[in-house]
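Moderator note: this is an archived Q&A kept for reference. The question asked for a predicted structure of one protein chain; the sequence and the answer are reproduced below.
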Amino acid sequence: MVRWFVGWLVCQRGFLHRADGYSTIELTNYPTNQPSNDQTLHMYILVTNDDGVTAPGLLALKRALQTLGNVIVVAPDRNWTASGHTKTMHKPLRVDQTTLRDGSPAYTTDGAPSDCVALVMLGLLPEKPALVVSGINPGSNLAHDLTYSGTVAAAMEGAINNVPSMAISVDGKNRDQIDFAPTAEFAVRLAQRMLTNGLPQDTFLNVNVPEIPLEQMRGVRITRLGKRIYRDALVERQDPTGKSYYWIGGEPPSGVIEEEGTDVWAVAHHFVSITPVHMDLTSHALIAPLKAWEDEIQLSSPASVVSRTDH
């Protein structure tokens, strides 16, 4: 199957050409043979992340999801942690073949996690995936983290393209010693349900799993976003010329764990948190109170307002 979709990418001088003559994506080292007419791309799951194609969480997720069907990996070629929802528009995106640690093929790009998903949705593959799964992130993505997370951004890009999507993270404390197996196993269980039931348009799931064995987890909770407490600090240093430069450092964030029903509360109490997230970021409760501003905020300059009142 992988050989098939590689062959489908018709490359001329390193560019993928559309029927209208425009080059959409710069590619390298792809074969140019097209598939026969009777070949079709079967249902597949797209896996990506923000930690890069060599991350162990990505491999664990890919291996687990293979029990459900075909899995295609398109992931960044480097770490994009805290990259947010990025779209690369003013430089070419390169896509290359690579091999994961288990010897299986994958695709990597110099774009962001959201670019990985966008490339597929815009035609890197001939069909959209049945499901987008982003992760496994070696650290939780709770509450306000969603606005920073590249892991979440990839799932968000899937939702924008009307494909059921989830971002999944494990609440790991020591990233070098995380056991991804319990989180990967839970991802399979949730993916099965998503493939069967789908999701409403413009929504995706943000999943956070405690770093404990599956049998020790207390259950699953459908949650709302909680509140993060960030403990960032600005670190100023000087280069050899004496010019200042800065790091954003500080302690890892905490959160308000007393508020039951939130994602922060659930993970702190050893539940798996599933938060349904909607792309509509509108504060609907504030629309009515702000309606009075429509008449109170003048679009004319103060000078023109005075001149009218003088007459």
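Archived answer notes: Residues 1-41 have pLDDT under 50 and may be disordered.
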